[in-house]
Write a structure and sequence with these properties.
Distance between the termini: 47 Å
Oligomer: single chain
Largest sheet: 3 strands, mixed
Shape: globular
Strand content: 5-15%
């Protein structure tokens, strides 16, 4: 295993930077149904959602975390690449887990939509990641549950990815990390919420 410390430390910064630092007091943490009700209320004065820094920074953070960690941890040409892959996936999984823990309420976990989207775009071919993200978002809207978006997006990633990159550790991890927020929410008995500015 060959370590390039500059890339590695920069990758860890992007992967592990607490997302709550990018949110201010105008941010609200809402379940899918709560968000739908607020959006349906025509009389409510709304703030511009795109002015929340996390909307733009989170996808970039996810993308840069993958890119820099892959540059920072390189396999030794004479040895197995499996330890490098395992370490990279472990560091990224810790990053997604930390991103979920950014809510002020102990009964909530933050749905890391933007962060996870950027991460998957960097990790998978765009032919797999982009349709899976669209399908996951559409499922969340259709079922009115963030959990549905993560689970169906993960399943779609697995099916579509099989045809493009084959069944292996990278694809299995991608499908698993897509569903990981739901696993954490069930295990910790918490509700998934989205950080929004409305």
């Amino acid at each position: 295993m060959i370590i390039h410390w500059g890339y590695l430390l920069a990758g860890l910064f992007f992967a592990w930077l607490p997302g709550k630092l990018l949110r201010n007091s105008t941010c609200r943490y809402l379940q899918c149904e709560q968000l739908n009700r607020r959006l349906a209320d025509k009389g409510r004065r709304r703030r511009r959602w795109w002015k929340l820094p996390a909307v733009w920074i989170d996808p970039i953070r996810g993308y840069m975390a993958v890119t820099l960690l892959q540059e920072g941890i390189q396999p030794d040409p004479l040895k197995s690449a499996l330890p490098v892959l395992a370490l990279t996936l472990l560091l990224l999984t810790i990053g997604v887990s930390a991103e979920c823990a950014g809510s002020r309420e102990k009964s909530h976990l933050v749905a890391p939509v933007g962060y996870l989207g950027g991460l998957l775009v960097a990790w998978l071919p765009w032919e797999v990641s982009v349709p899976a993200l669209i399908f996951g978002a559409a499922s969340a809207v259709a079922f009115r549950r963030w959990e549905a978006g993560f689970l169906t997006g993960g399943a779609f990633t697995l099916v579509l990815g099989y045809f493009f990159i084959g069944l292996g550790i990278p694809l299995l991890w991608s499908a698993g990390i897509y569903a990981w927020p739901v696993v954490l929410a069930v295990f910790l008995h918490r509700k998934l919420v989205l950080a929004v500015r409305i």
